Amino acid sequence: MGKGGADSVRKVGTEMGHFVPCLALSTWAFHAFIGTCWRYCLAQRDPSAPPYTSRTWEPLLPFLPSPRWRRFNQLVPIDSLFKTISGSLIIITSYRFPQIVCPDGVREGRIVGQHVMYWAHAMLIVACVLVGVVELVAIRVRFPPGTSAAVMVAAHIVLVIIFSYHQKHEIFDQTIHELVGHCFFVAAICGVMEVYQPTSFLAVSGKLFFHIMGSAWLGMAGYMLFSGSVFWSPVWNAQTDVGPVMFAPIVFIMMMLGLLVFMLIIFALVDLLAARRLRAVGPDAPEEAMLALTQLPISKMGGERQGLLVKSEAAGGYSAINGQVDGDALGSSGLGGFGVERSGCLVRNGRA
Questions:
Q1: What pTM value is reported for the model?
Q2: DSSP category for residue 283
Q3: Where are the transmembrane segments (predicted)?
Q4: Is residue 156 a part of any domain in this protein?
Q5: DSSP character at residue 325
Q6: 200 in Cβ contact with 191 (< 8 Å)
Q7: pLDDT tens, the chain, 352 aa long
Q8: Other beta carbons within 10 Å of 288
Q9: Is residue 338 part of a domain?
Q10: Does residue 327 sit within a domain?
């Protein structure tokens, strides 16, 4: 391979293979976590707020009080568009699925090893784009409840396969990519829990936490492999150095603990902001005003797009129109304990 080919492979390995996906995946997950915290905190602090249920998309910065911004969030599915457009641009401009079969020479008819990475990176982006496409289609198509969450589980499984079976180069390269795969594996497990229990805030938070951790570690892996740092060099004196392989998981743990503290701080700040906004609205605010605080679409179509069931379409449940929960439905769906606990919490807080 010539110098130009080597530079191309290095660019894909560092910028397009690690840093750009790290930035795109982390940006979406932090945005989703903030929106999830906002809706959860509103639901826990005020009984007239729509009850919390999980979604794969969130309004952009829903705590901003501007009516125009609220209208923008209600009309434009910016979250789904970000997944679809950004992922498509990355594939078109960087990966492009190059020729995978060697056309001539001694390797004629065999796989072009240098192009495998393009296909692998492209497939993980395609999986993420698919989530956004399903969310956009769901604006008009009545998919079964939880379809978007199930598709996101499938996308996480794709990432697990890509990173867990990364067999190129030395053990150091394989190890740090396996750590990325471990993160998305746990994210997939949390996603399955979310599908079965959409009212679980911890399931959604766990999914987003390990999604962010995997994305951040993907960027860190790019630095370790392609920065040229002697500290992370897996070879010393023409022999394999086990130091970087053993120390990389320690750095991974430090990053994970730091991310945990950071996300707890975000939750605390969002909760305090939600309490302040609720005091400004007042305890006797109508349900329409509480729904406006979430910046969710008020129309029936918007409610269905969020994965929330209209009462006539299920054996009782959440009505996307008026933001009410049928207590009998909670009991029949196995969520009665949650409903009782939430009601008791609201009474104790003096909000009901």
A1: 0.76
A2: T
A3: 118-137, 149-167, 179-196, 208-226, 246-270
A4: yes
A5: B
A6: no
A7: 444 444 555 555 566 677 888 888 899 999 999 989 988 988 888 777 778 888 888 888 887 777 787 788 778 888 888 889 988 888 887 766 767 777 777 777 777 767 777 787 788 888 889 999 999 998 888 888 888 899 999 999 999 998 888 766 678 888 888 999 999 999 999 999 999 998 899 999 999 999 999 999 998 988 888 877 788 877 777 777 788 888 999 999 999 999 999 999 999 999 998 888 777 666 555 555 555 566 566 543 333 334 333 333 333 333 332 333 333 333 333 333 333 334 444 444 444 3
A8: 11
A9: no
A10: no
Residue 5 CA to residue 299 CA, distance in Å, equals 53
**Most distant CA pair in the chain, distance:** 78
H or E segment and range at residue 117: helix 113-137
Distance in angstroms (rounded) separating the CA atoms of residues 170 and 14: 17
Residue 297: domain span: 3-308
Determine the Cα–Cα distance for residues 245 and 262; give it in Å rounded to an integer. 26
Rounded Cα distance between 331 and 228, Å, is: 59
Q: 3-state class of 318 per DSSP? A: strand
Work out the end-to-end distance of the chain between its first and last CA atoms, rounded to an integer number of angstroms.
Answer: 71
Residue at 315: amino acid letter: A
Q: Which two tokens stand for residue 201?
A: 């805030």
The number of distinct structural domains making up the chain is: 1
- Size of the chain, expressed as the number of residues it contains: 352
Cα 36 to Cα 242: distance, rounded to the nearest angstrom = 41
The CA distance from 57 to 55, in Å, is: 5
| Tokens read off for 325 | 């929960």
Q: Look at phi and psi of residue 69 and say left if phi exceeds 0, alpha if psi is from -120 to 50, else beta.
A: alpha
